[in-house]
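Page 42, continued from yesterday. The earlier attempt failed because a stray header line got pasted into the input along with the sequence. Redoing it now with the clean sequence only.
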Amino acid sequence: MADEENITIKETKKKSGKRKPLPMYKVLLHNDKVNDFGQVVKVVYQLTPLKKEECVQRVTEAHETGVSLLLVTHKERAELYEEQFRSNIPPIKVTIEPDE
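This time it went through. Structure tokens are written below.
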């Protein structure tokens, strides 16, 4: 019976053309004792769609409080951001978590 219900749900979604929205994830910047403040601002500016002033604000917040929300996006893009920041030399600590 459960399989029949799943098939019906899938068919209904196909017919209606509506897709379930992608789950959203937070991209969080963490303070560290390795990276220079200016370098972090530069990398955040290069990798995200944030304006320069927003980058400075986010990096300042991470520096003062330990963590700052950079942006919210779908999971795949959040994972890409996390990987790009990790690829920086030295790595910049960014984590992702579900946006509830």
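Notes: The chain has one domain: 20-98.
Reminder to self: strip header lines before submitting.
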